[in-house]
Amino acid sequence: MTPPAPAGPPKRDDPEVGEQRLQKVLARAGVASRRHAEELIVAGRVSVGGKVVRELGVRVDPARDSIEVDGRAIAAEPLTYVLFHKPRGVVSTMRDPAGRSAVADYVRDVGARVVPVGRLDYQTSGVLILTNDGALARRLLHPSQGVLKEYLLKVHGLVDDTGLQRFSESIDIDGRRTRPATVEVTRTEGDKTWLKVVLHEGKNRQVRRLAEHAGYRVMRLSRSHFAGLGLDGLAPGAWRHLTRPELAALGV
């Protein structure tokens, strides 16, 4: 399946458009990671408007300023927004030191250097947003925004009212209490139960820890929606660009 065309260039009032730190522009252009870009600047290998820049934190406008690395002109990548159906058995990073399959293996043809917004654990499948828009990523992940995350969970055993109550309770993760989840039974299959779990935050392995707290063994877990975005038939391992209406709904 051929991914739909990108939604179009970002608007000029986007918080990631205009003046930005030089190392960020270099990273977005795919020249290097931000950390390596800082090393290039300090080494005197970067020039702006024909003048070598050695100080970190210098702000530039990639739409107006001439930027070169080792004498070669660079161009900032356009803001890019991707919806990816992460399969099980894939790490939610762009590479894995252990050599396991990673997100980067599936999005090589996106045309920009994007990274995941948050993570899904190794055995969890489902909706994952990737972007190079740092402002949007921070907004989607900040607890104050209350961005909803919906999961489909299959557990061993029949979940009664007591079990549902325990699933909905606040639990401690890394020394902090979670917000109560919204949980409902969607169907049963013999001695197995499917549940819909809605979180207002995204703590580490929160759904799996809720299942452990409630006394049930997780058999399958997938994220069906994130920030209102669903998979809508997107096959595991497939991706597409977000549409303009979807970006508008995210505030882009």
List the helices and strands and how they pair.
Elements (H helix, E strand, L loop, with lengths): L19 E2 H7 L5 H9 L3 E3 L2 E2 L6 E2 L6 E3 L2 E2 L7 E6 L28 E2 L8 E7 L2 H8 L7 E8 L4 H7 L4 E2 L2 E2 L4 E8 L2 E8 L6 H9 L2 E10 L2 E2 L8 E3 L2 H6 L3
Parallel strand pairs: 9-15
Antiparallel strand pairs: 1-4, 2-3, 2-5, 5-6, 7-9, 7-17, 8-9, 10-14, 10-15, 11-12, 13-14, 15-16
Give a short overview.
The protein is an alpha+beta fold. It has six helices and 17 strands. The protein has helices spanning 22-28, 34-42, 134-141, 161-167, 206-214, 244-249, and strands spanning 20-21, 46-48, 51-52, 59-60, 67-69, 72-73, 81-86, 115-116, 125-131, 149-156, 172-173, 176-177, 182-189, 192-199, 217-226, 229-230, 239-241.
Q: CATH superfamily membership of the largest domain, which one? A: Pseudouridine synthase I, catalytic domain, N-terminal subdomain
Task: Characterize the largest beta sheet: strand count, sense, and whether it forms a barrel.
Answer: 9 strands, mixed
* Overall residue-averaged pLDDT value: 88
- Which CATH class of the largest domain? Alpha Beta
Question: Could you tell me the radius of gyration in angstroms?
Answer: 21 Å
The CATH architecture term of the largest domain is 2-Layer Sandwich
Give me the count of strands. 17
Number of helices: 6
The shape, in one word, is: elongated
Please give the alpha-carbon distance between the first and last residues. Answer: 26 Å
CATH T-level topology of the largest domain: Alpha-Beta Plaits
Tell me the fraction of residues in β-strands, as a range: 25-35%
* Count of distinct structural domains: 3
- Helix-strand topology string: EHHEEEEEEEEHEHEEEEHEEEH
Structural class: alpha+beta
Low-confidence stretches: 1-17
Helical content, roughly? 10-25%
